[in-house]
Prior knowledge:
Elements: E1 12-20, H1 29-42, E2 59-62, E3 70-80, H2 86-96, E4 101-108, H3 115-118, E5 121-129, H4 133-145, E6 150-155, E7 158-163, E8 168-176, H5 178-181, E9 190-198, H6 206-217, E10 226-233, E11 273-274, E12 279-280
Parallel strand pairs: 3-10, 8-11, 8-12
Antiparallel strand pairs: 1-3, 1-4, 2-3, 5-9, 5-10, 6-7, 8-9
Helix pairs in contact: 1-2, 4-6
Amino acid sequence: xxxxxxxxxVTQRLRVRYAKRGRLRFTSHRDIxxxxxxxxxxxxxPVAYSAGFTPHPKISYAGAAATGxxxxxxxxxxxxxxxxxPAWVRTALDEALPGGLDIVDVVAARTGSSIADRxxxxxxxxxxxxVATGAAAEATGTFMAAAxxxxxxxxxxxxxxxxxxxxxxxxxxxxxxxxRRGMDETAVPCVILRMVVRHTTPAVRPDDVLAGLRQVxxxxxxxxxxxxRLAQGPLNAGTGELTDPLDPDRETExxxxxAIAGNGLASMPVGVVSADVVSAQP
Length: 282
């Protein structure tokens, strides 16, 4: 055992929702964790440390998005040695982080359950340039109508085969906003696939869904996809609605939980595909 006094115990746990935007989507999870640790020290937040010869700040992450994926709903938990106002922590930490890593919400943990246990599903958007709405809708309909769509992915344990269809609760095809694309005579078409995907083992990622679309419908866009996670949270199996995972920790719990999808998928029954054409910002 190392010599010296024992580390100061945790007196408060804060749960933080943050966003990964713009060029920061290409930052690895390890670099993000380093940036958060530096920002915590810079902001003067009294973070607790683990015991042992190499103490580490007590900051844990849940359901982190992959490198290259933007997100509006990433979560972490910080253990503090002294009580702080969550609003102050939100402001101080946001100011200390680089642009593109933005603090969205901070609440004090008031329940014993882990934040990771509440992240049952994610809502994603996949922007595809050079794709017509009709082609995307037809391919998506074929995928959703399939009972099973097996795809392969190389993992640390080698090549793994799994069903990508069963994890997709709902899927919707939207047209990109012409104003956002600078619409002119030479503008290429653009669509957005918006979907709710359950968290399973192994995890089904947006690129797995694209692999499934290529397999069952020969749908293979030439442009690289632009993927963004809009929300994570508890999933209502009947409606496909995601709720805010931080709601149970708030002082006043809203009845039924506040929906965080807010995009039209919340009202879609699980397993339904929609090809409605609406405006959507990439």
